[in-house]
Amino acid sequence: MEFSVADRPDGITFVTLAGSLDLKGTNEIDLKFQSSIAPRRQPTIVDVSGLTFISSIGMGMLVSAATSLRRNGKKLVLLNASPEIAQALRHARLDTVMPLVEGLDAAVAMVQQAA
After folding, report:
1. Against a cut of 0.85, is the pTM above it?
2. Separation CA 44–CA 70 (nearest Å)
3. Is the pLDDT of residue 115 over 60?
4. Phi and psi based region of residue 30 (left: phi greater than 0; alpha: psi -120 to 50; beta: remaining)
């Protein structure tokens, strides 16, 4: 599982995930992911275009971060999900917690709105 995080000049945290967010992949990055997102209390875009699979435990990791940010009036959006990943998230109704957005400009606009 690959994970990177960067602070954008506009105050948005930009995260990239690639690989399989299954039990093994989630265990590899969960602590680092949570400690990179929640304490910053910044709007966050998570680029999931590189995900090849997401399990319920991976979804839970994302929801936990989104919920933590929401408590601080910030949003987390998922950027460029593949059709399979988007379908899994919509089926679990998680797109209501973490909007699925296509295109970086749309993602930036969405996270800059109040949560």
Report:
1. yes
2. 11
3. no
4. alpha
